[in-house]
Specification:
The complex is a heterodimer of chains A (234) and B (457). By secondary structure, chain A is mostly helical. In chain A, helix 8 packs across helix 9. By secondary structure, chain B is mainly alpha-helical. Chain B has 22 helices and two strands. In chain B, strand 1 and strand 2 form a beta hairpin. In chain B, helix 13 packs across helix 14 and helix 14 runs parallel beside helix 16. Chain B starts with a helix and ends with a helix. Classes of the chains: A mainly alpha (234), B mainly alpha (457). At the A-B interface, helix 1 and helix 5 of A face helix 2, helix 10 and helix 13 of B.
Chain lengths: 234, 457
């Protein structure tokens, strides 16, 4: 074997070892071809932003995502009502949180705030969709307070709708979903006011209260039949 | 030997002592206590625990506290307590001093229970005084771990098979060589000199071929993998288990990732979403998962929740860090398993800081992708792209997220053309389908899902 062969063989060996050590490290994102097209030059929603960092003039957090300018109206919602709005306007409670989170306003909301939606098939379907995403985990499929995290023993027992709902109004339900109560957190960020009202209708159907209560005008079916009363046919 | 005998007798002694005492504990769980437990769980447990504060105060010893402190206007403290449970405003209006001091809790949040009868109240008090021993199922975690370990690994079988086949090939070659030599010997022909195997030309050719194939394959695979992150599993700041949350506890994906249905982004949930449950689940119970308290404490440190008294800190970012640190050090001092110094430092590093999750799924900037379009209009399951997230304790990237992978799915996936009102605007297609000039099976590709500028613009 001459010297050239030895060199060639050892080069081949080195190349093999180098390639084998290229094994993927799952903790690393790997290399990128043309990185200037892959990574955004602008700050993205969740990236750190030095313009709002601790040392900057404008803020103390480092978030790129800022709060919208005061008075911004989310798409699909109406402007907030003025403080001089009539009771009738306020009654919808759909577009303005005019009841801050305290017990007095909990009672006020309960007395004044009415559900602007009718329990149509579409509304109840949407309510059911929301319920299976956000409520079922604790409140359970039938609203008995036996959701999956209660059953697993991780979470304290949750009150059953059948027990609690006959004692409160839909306005209080709305207030509770908006601000939270007891251990329950606020769902105002996760659910639009519209979705909150729709899920309230579905819950009322589940517990056979409100428009679904025994003898209520809108229901013809037997009241004991809580789950199928006026249920949307899928 | 003596030592064994000694420990065996100690064991017997312990068993002998334990058996009657546990029987005695269960013996106390009278009908009254059981009835009380039922009412307590239905009406009280959402806000009260016995040993610790939840929303309301810890209830162990509540009877004694009222008996000692609330006697008023000739009515005993115990009776005032019962009236408090039915309607807390009653003793407050009557001016019972102890009831008025309860204003330090958010009393107004307490529900009134006018439906409770005197017997019910007695049952509840009996339950609070003598709760039956809690039987904790310890075995579940152990069996789950054992199950994972016993899973057989196919790789070892394959390697074994290759080794065995290799031995057979070498053996057969030797046998055929000696047989050939025997034949030549019999026929009296000259036997060729044995060539060492590394000088064997055929062998050299085969080895060279294998090396060339391996190298070319490695180069091609490596080039394709540039810019792809399949399998990327970064270490996250909090050991959050999707398996525990989405799998075992069956929390819907959209419960936390609310943006997926309505926005381009599927959002990283804010800490307030965590607090929906973790206000109540503090991880001090071994049932709350492997890492429990330490990892949950990082949420509290980020959001400003005081786990000891169950309230949010007032004006959190303005509080001196040393004060917050001291509270979390106390909170972590009795963790099980014991928190190491490094563990505590990790939690304290999160104090007053946002949680910096590491992004896993990241398309290049020159690709437009919209979650709402896929989730709401297309009705695609999260798992189609993200894989079985509900089984991943640690989340990694399941799919390659390559362009070929996108295009392939767009070619194969049929949209719900007639049912979904989203596709109503494709009037020409609807007309042609009605006139039977077109296949009613409409894929994403047919409605322009493979046009360049759909995703690159």
């Amino acid at each position: 074997m001459n010297i050239y062969q030895t060199i060639r063989l050892s080069l081949l060996g080195a190349l093999l070892i180098a390639l084998a050590s290229c094994g993927s490290d799952k903790r690393q994102p790997g290399r990128t071809f043309v990185p200037d097209m892959a990574y955004s030059q602008a700050y993205e929603t969740y990236t750190k932003n030095p313009a709002f960092g601790k040392d900057s003039l404008s803020g103390v957090d480092s978030f790129s995502a800022r709060l919208p300018v005061a008075g911004t109206i989310p798409r699909g919602l109406l402007p907030e009502l003025s403080d001089s709005a009539t009771d009738q306007e306020l009654a919808s409670y759909l577009y303005k949180r005019n009841y801050p989170n305290d017990s007095l306003n909990y009672a006020n909301a309960g007395a004044n705030v009415k559900n602007p939606f009718q329990p149509t098939k579409e509304v109840l379907e949407r309510g059911k969709h929301i319920y299976t995403i956000h409520c079922i985990v604790c409140h359970g499929e039938k609203g008995a307070g036996d959701g999956s995290i209660v059953q697993s023993g991780a979470y304290p027992q949750v009150v059953s709708y059948a027990d609690r709902l006959p004692t409160i109004t839909e306005g209080q339900m709305f207030h509770t979903i908006t601000y939270g109560k007891g251990l329950m957190g606020s769902y105002s960020a996760a659910l639009t006011a519209e979705d909150r009202w729709k899920v309230i209708l579905f819950i009322e159907q589940l517990a056979a209260v409100g428009p679904f209560a025994k003898g209520a005008a809108t229901t013809a079916a037997a009241p004991a039949d809580t789950t199928t009363t006026a249920a949307p046919s899928n | 030997m003596n030592v064994y005998r000694y420990s065996f007798f100690t064991f017997l002694l312990i068993v002998a002592l334990l058996v009657p005492s546990s029987v005695a504990v269960y013996g106390q769980a009278s009908e009254q206590v059981l009835a009380g437990e039922k009412i307590f769980k239905a009406k009280c447990a959402s806000c009260h625990k016995l040993g610790t504060k939840l929303i309301g105060p810890a209830l162990t010893g509540v009877e004694q506290r009222w008996v000692d402190g609330a006697e008023h206007a000739g009515v005993s403290g115990r009776d005032w307590l019962k009236r408090w449970i039915k309607n807390w405003q009653d003793p407050v209006k009557a001016g019972v001093g102890y009831a008025v001091t309860m204003q330090s809790y958010d009393v107004s949040a307490m529900t009134q229970f006018p439906e409770l009868q005197d017997a019910d109240l007695e049952n509840i008090l009996a339950y609070i005084a003598n709760p039956p021993a809690d039987v904790v199922p310890v075995t579940t975690a152990a069996t789950a771990d054992g199950g994972a370990d016993t899973g057989s690994n196919n790789t070892y079988w394959l390697i074994g098979l290759v080794v065995i086949l290799g031995i057979i090939v070498i053996g057969l070659t030797i046998v055929s060589g000696s047989l050939n030599r025997l034949v030549l010997e019999k026929e009296g022909e000259p036997i060729p000199a044995a060539v060492p195997f590394w000088k064997n030309r055929k062998l050299r050719a085969v080895v060279t071929l294998i090396v060339v194939i391996y190298l070319s394959n490695a180069v091609v695979v490596g080039a394709i993998d540039l810019g792809r992150q399949q399998g990327y599993t970064p270490i996250q700041p909090i050991k959050f288990s999707h398996e525990l949350h989405a799998g075992i506890n069956k929390i819907n994906c959209e419960y936390c990732h609310t943006g997926a249905a309505v926005s381009k982004h599927s959002n990283i949930p804010s800490i307030s979403t965590c607090m929906n449950c973790h206000k109540g689940i503090k991880g001090d119970d071994p049932k709350n998962g492997k890492y429990g308290k330490l990892e949950i404490s990082k949420i509290y440190a980020a959001v400003g929740f005081n786990p000891i008294d169950g309230n949010y800190f007032e004006n959190y970012v303005a509080q001196p860090k040393s004060y917050i640190d001291s509270i979390f050090t106390i909170w972590l001092s009795d963790s099980k398993p014991v928190a190491s110094k490094k563990n505590v430092e990790e939690v304290l590093a999160q104090v007053q800081q946002p949680v910096e999750w590491v992004r896993i799924h990241n398309l290049p900037d020159h690709v437009y992708f919209n979650h709402a379009q896929h989730v709401t209009a297309g009705g695609v399951e999260c798992q189609t792209c993200h894989g079985p997230v509900e089984t991943m304790e640690e989340l990694g990237q399941h799919s390659p997220l390559s362009m070929g992978w996108c295009i392939n799915c767009h070619r194969e996936t049929e949209v719900k053309f007639s049912e979904n009102p989203f596709y109503e605007t494709y009037q020409v297609f609807h007309d042609r389908i009605k006139a039977e000039e077109m296949d009613p099976k409409v894929t994403v590709e047919k409605i322009g899902g493979t046009e360049c500028q759909k995703c690159h613009y």
